[in-house]
Amino acid sequence: MAFRLGVDVGGTFTDILLINETTGTTHRYKTSSTPEDQSIGVLYGIEQVCLAAGVSPSEVREVLHGTTIATNAILEKKGARVGLVTTNGFRQVLQIARSFVPGGLAGWIVWPKPEPLADLEDTVEVIERIASNGDVITPLDEDDVRRQLQKLRKKGIEALSISLINAYSNGDHERRIAEIAAEELPGVPVSRSSIVLPELREYERTITTVANAYVQGQVAGYVRNLESKLGGAGIEAQLSILRSDGGLVSGMVAADNPVSLLLSGPAGGVTGAVWAAEQAGFANLLTFDMGGTSTDVALVQDLSPRIGRETTVGDLTVRATSVDVRTVGAGGGSIAHVPPLTQALRVGPQSAGAAPGPASYGKGGSAPTVTDANVVLGYLPSQLAGGEITLDIEAASRAVQTIADSTSLTSTEAAAGGIIDIVNENIYGALKLVSTQQGFDPRDFALVAFGGAGPLHANALGILTGAWPVIIPPSPGVLCAYGDATTSLRDESARTLVRRFSELTDAHLLGIFDELAESATESLLATGLSVDELTVTYSADLRYHGQGFEIPIEIEIDTFRTEAERNGLGLLQSIFDTEHERLFAFLLDNERELVTARATVSGPRPEVASVSLDDGGPDPTPAARSKHTIWIQGFPVEATIYDRHLLKAGNVVAGPAVIAEMDSTTLVLPDHSATVHSHGSLLIRPVDATAKD
Q1: Fewer CB within 10 A of the end CB, N or C, for the chain?
Q2: Is pTM beyond 0.70 here?
């Protein structure tokens, strides 16, 4: 039999999911992350899940991995020292940046301008110039290139980025500089803007290329290290890494283009949430992934996550296709604190992480965290991660009491309730960014909650958003790993055109899309897939002529290809107008303009059998484990503790209740109930809505 492994590394836990490709049977394991070397936790988790399943590691055929290596390098400022080569006269392209005024009144006064990832002293200019149409205006001076590269060698740069003006239209000069760099800077990895981001706008193209170079060494080293350790453990499997847009690429491709991995971890969660929602019969959803360090939220329409053209990590924004995920520093390990000046309770973004972790983990942590507050309120069982972590209730109480002592809150339970209320409001704010701020009413969506901490806060977030039902998928704590294991290989190719619609024809644009599809197909064919197994989708970035921003629009290629239906540009204009009016509530008379065309090629989605539960009727009593006192809105109430593994399809769990499982815990509040779906998800609704269903 063949097995595939989904691996997701978070700030606190590493999640492993083993899937039998023949039967669909899954085995899961959750272990503490090892920030000093993520591969240590990954290998330990793989060994344990194979041991538990009685499977030899040699039977694993694929390892599908969502990683935060690139993200952490950016956040922790631990990337390489990057040298930048640009066109003569444009040395300060990163310092000038893009005009941006943060915040509201006087926000710019206190805004710390981000430091460029390539210092000005490590930036050199070369003599050359290419026109926007690709014509060479000034030939490349190769002697000058060598002199400039020698300067960078003396500076001790560890990576090189090349971003010349208008290189998106002609990358010949960048290619030649890279060849010379191989001679002058042997062993130094090189990133070219014409490869990383062959698109309009010199600042965005440059910062994205520099970011790629900044993290390339760490990602390449991690991939090599993990592949070596997998081989040493007898796992001769193909390693694939999840991209920010939810697709997979081979480890080698990921190492060459790591800027596409900056949201690798969150993208896996969204992919897994879509799979779970589809099984439960819902196509429009908000996703809510709460881990130990942060919470990631996204919006999905018709089972398709909204895709953005920018990726933001910390204070860095690059042009890279990614699932439109918003992140807030609100996780189980988020630390509660009371600033002396305001005396107002705050939660996060600081986190206790995996080491030392929350006070209740008993690893030396003493700061009060969200997890500790949940322990004090009685929402968490005494053990987490299948028994790997035993919770210290007294330590949690001592930590949370420090908040009560620093405020006017009268008890430890009141302080814990305040911590939970604040972190829920923080998450609600993030959900509004992907819904109401984008013109969507959250009441039109289901809310899929997952991650180790998500199901504890899900019912409360359903009340705040009005999004029902709240869906708790099977194995919510390892759903990101499930997403990694159930997605497909993907690659894309793009070309900047900047053409008004009057300058284009359907036939001309169709030819461009076909060329892009052929280019994007090459890397997938190299993995052994056949053309018949590939699916191609198309999109374009459109704007009104004169606008300074674009809107990505999906394209039905048949409207360009089929003679009887050929009205591609007309339909494209109509779709653009509709989206522009939805986003901004107005239209312009200006001519429409196509800036960038894009083709995305995907491999087949793996077939994974879904969970199928036996019918058990509405009575969940056989799964009841004990009675327990929990605190709701400042008052103690008696709740029933249920074992989720014993629940059957059709069971209705009335709140207040706590539903425990190996990798997560679900809280059902009073006046709400959780119905068990036949495919394993819990569907939480207000009692009145459940009765109507």
Answers
A1: C
A2: yes
Q: Are 452 and 472 in contact (CB under 8 A)?
A: no
Domain covering 264-331+423-480 in this structure, CATH number: 3.30.420.40
CATH class of 3-74+220-261: alpha beta
Q: Could you tell me the two tokens for 283? A: 């196509």
The contacts of residue 672 (CB under 8 Å, 6+ apart) are 459, 462, 655, 684, 685, 686, 687, 690
Domain 490-602 fold is Dna Ligase; domain 1 (3.30.1490)
Please report, in angstroms and rounded to a whole number, the separation of the first and last CA atoms in the chain: 42
Domains 264-331+423-480 and 490-602 share a fold: no
Q: Tell me the per-residue pLDDT of 282-308, one tens digit each, with 9 for 90 and over.
A: 999 999 999 877 888 999 999 988 887
Peptide bond between residue 340 and the one before it cis (omega within 30 degrees of 0): no
Helix then strand count (H, E) for the chain reads: 18, 37
Mean pLDDT (whole number) for 619-646:
93
Q: Tell me, what's the pLDDT at 37?
A: 82
Helix axes 454-465, 412-434, angle to 10 degrees: 70
pLDDT for res 693: 53
- The conformation of residue 605, written as its DSSP 8-state character, comes to P
The Cα angle at residue 211 between residues 210 and 212, in degrees rounded to 5: 90
User: What tokens does 161 get?
Assistant: 């980025």
What's the Cα-to-Cα distance from 472 to each of 328, 560, 674, 683, rounded to whole Å?
Answer: 20, 42, 9, 7
